[in-house]
Amino acid sequence: MNNPPPPPPLAALDEGRRLLAQPLLPLVRLLNLLYLTGPFGTIEELLTQLSEPVETAGLRYPDPRAVLNPLLPQLRELERLKNNDLSAREICDEEGSPLSPLEALELWVSQAVLTRELEALNSLLCAPCRCTLCCTGPSPEMRQEFFEIPLTAPETRLFPLPVIEPLAPPPMQTQQGPAIYHWRSGWSLILPKASTCPQLATDGRCRIYRERPQVCRRPQIFAYVIEKINDGERGRETTLSRFRRRNNLLAVWDCPYVRALQEEIARFAELSGLEPVFRSNKG
Ligand code: SF4
Ligand code: SF4
Questions:
Q1: How many domains does the structure of the chain reveal?
Q2: Model's pTM, two decimal places?
Q3: Which of 35, 134, 260, 274 has its CB 3.0 to 4.6 Å from that of 7, i.e. a possible disulfide?
């Protein structure tokens, strides 16, 4: 169950590959520049001017307005700079020094745009793979005792499972089947060895696909333009809203489409101004 199937023929991945070849961040960076240096009060004002094809970073966007319009909620964050409405969140460089409001805002918008872009991309690439790796616990030969799917509180209602309130990271091998764990820092769906998510149907499909948890929408290419800084200690509440610049795109080898499209993913990262990082998660 845990050995992912071989990747499907490349032709089956064509829709996702088309998005990989045309990343959004080069266009978004150009928009940032135009907005911040131009006389535009709102992002929408600028978008109404983008009626012609745009070329940037060696890419051609035939209809930039159509591409950018769905990103308005993410792009409107830029308006904060002109409105002097900067939030209290802090974004640092790799050494921990705070970045300027402009640099911080650009990173914030890039992270939000890339997260949304990768959600669509990962979904298009996952569907043809007929793989359930993300929805099953470790197989018996794996060293991990369990896999963990972080959930928000409302998402826990999607799973008809017992809720466990551990005082500390527990010995999962004593847990017989999947369960929801309520840590002091949040919620997780825990899938012990050889178990499956209760929403995984026998035909390999997700029974709650349209309302599946956020984490299930985002494997296995991840946006790390910035990363939240936390105390790294499970069970301790954190109210910090601090982030560190990473400028990475993480792709996980376990996934069949990541293995099949390594070069295209690396190129996507490069065009997006990010360092591609490939690594294994399970084994
Ligand atoms: S909710 Fe759906 S996508 Fe998420 S682990 Fe369960 S079956 Fe897989
Ligand atoms: S995201 Fe990749 S590893 Fe996860 S189920 Fe889809 S194809 Fe398999």
A1: 2
A2: 0.88
A3: 260
